[in-house]
Amino acid sequence: MGGLLDPTRLQRRWQLVLLTSIMSIIVFLFFSFGRPPPSGEVTDPLPISQLGVSLHNQGISGTPIKPKDLKVIGLVFFGRKDRVRILNCYLERNLASNGGWLDEVHWVRNTDTKEDVDYLHELIENHSAYKLVEIKEHGFVGYGLAWSTLEEGAIYLKVDDDVVFMADDAIARIVSTKVAHPEYLVVSANMINSPLMGWVHYHMGATHPYLPELIDPEDVSPGLAPDREKLKHPDTAKRTPWRYTQYPHWTGPDDYFFSFEQEPPSMRHRWLRLSTNIDNQVQQLKRTPISDAEYSTWGNSVQSWAIAAQQHYSFLENLYEDQLDLYQFSPKAKAWISDYQRLSINFIAINATEILSHLPMDTVDEEWLTVSLPKKMGKSVAVDSHALAVHFSFGGQGDVRTTDLLGRYLDYALENACMAPGPRDTRGSYYV
């Protein structure tokens, strides 16, 4: 027999209807706006005006997508085969034809050494994206002349020939930061072995206690002694295991200290990790060269081979331990501004139009690009802390060549960065 519904049952029925309606709206919104793209579907690239925001202000992970109308050209001042054999692996990996951001690489010949020049010509012959830039003068004069060869409207990635590592996203990051931030005239990668950034890395905890292996003087043969003449034309680096775990810890007197001013103990010597624990880690670092590093363009960091070596061995440890974030600022942090202190231009992004419209240079290119021109234009020079790369050595750090570091970087590159197939010698090195 029919009748009125119980008020309690009626209330429950309306609650069920309301809940069902809310759930339907949530499901509709999710599938309309929040679902990930189906497999194989390509999302629209971020607008170029938002690239810097997404990478630095919101902390969104991942490499930005290169805009179709953006041309990126690498500019390398070439001089040394034993370095470029490592660098080339990273350049090849980053060519547009391999899915990277480099449309072309322009090589400025900065040497007359036949073996090096022959190697350069071989590189260019094997890569359609590689082009030779010939200038009449070499050295600092030649650097100034080379900048006048830039292509209007392109973004240039200037790379030193002794950059021996770059992160997979390093180029995309500094180029996108440069384009998204017109207030930056120059954007640099976060360089390991940089006179300014090395001090920052040390105080951020990215540098570890390493010392050169102690060798009994009686065990040092003439072939191992650091011959100064031999350093001018060192042997090509031999492949050496890059993982620090394949080597013993440093052993020696507890009060042993190695100054940033000391000379290398031998040719092809190695630096070894000091054992540390929670009680002695500060004291162990104080025994090493990095403890005296200075935040100064012309400080001891740019002259000391020992400070450079310690930074390199520390980086290879961080690379193995997957802790490269030790070098990086917070994802929401802004770029590091050098504030018109001369910054090394080992790995930088610039807009060709900005440079061409202010030539000729009235001083050396590094001073002009990071001090003189930024002041004149009222712009900043920035370091993107999330774009990591490694610079092997400055002129005053020549004794870094007495270590086994080039061999370690070569080993890492051949294992992780070099692309096959390609010409290689019987030792397995590409384009050697």
Describe this structure in words.
- This protein has 432 residues and is an alpha/beta fold.
- It has one domain.
- The protein is 33% helix and 14% strand.
- The chain has 13 helices and eleven strands.
- The protein has helices at residues 7-34, 51-57, 81-93, 114-125, 139-146, 170-180, 197-203, 228-232, 281-285, 305-320, 352-356, 365-377, 405-416, and strands at 72-78, 104-109, 130-133, 155-160, 163-166, 184-192, 210-212, 271-273, 336-337, 347-351, 380-391.
- Strands 1, 2, 3, 4, 5, 6, 9, 10 and 11 form a nine-stranded mixed β-sheet that branches. It has a two-stranded antiparallel ribbon with strand order 7-8.
- The chain is globular and about 60 Å long.
- The protein starts with 6 loop residues before the first helix and ends in a 16-residue tail after the last helix.
- Residues 1-5, 24-61 and 421-432 have low confidence and may be disordered.
Characteristics:
11 strands, nine-stranded mixed sheet, alpha/beta, disordered N terminus, single chain, transmembrane helix, membrane, 13 helices, 432 residues, two-stranded antiparallel ribbon, transmembrane, disordered C terminus, globular
Number of domains: 1
Alpha-carbon distance between the two ends:
97 Å
Helix content: 25-40%
Overall pLDDT, averaged?
Answer: 82
Q: Nearest-angstrom radius of gyration?
A: 27 Å
Distinct helical segment count: 13
Q: Stretches where pLDDT falls below 50 for ≥5 residues?
A: 1-5, 24-61, 421-432
Strand portion, in percent? 5-15%
Order of helices and strands: HHEHEHEHEEHEHEHEHHEEHHEH
Q: How many strands, which pairing sense, and closed or not: the largest β-sheet?
A: 9 strands, mixed
> Based on helices, strands and strand pairing, what is the structural class?
alpha/beta
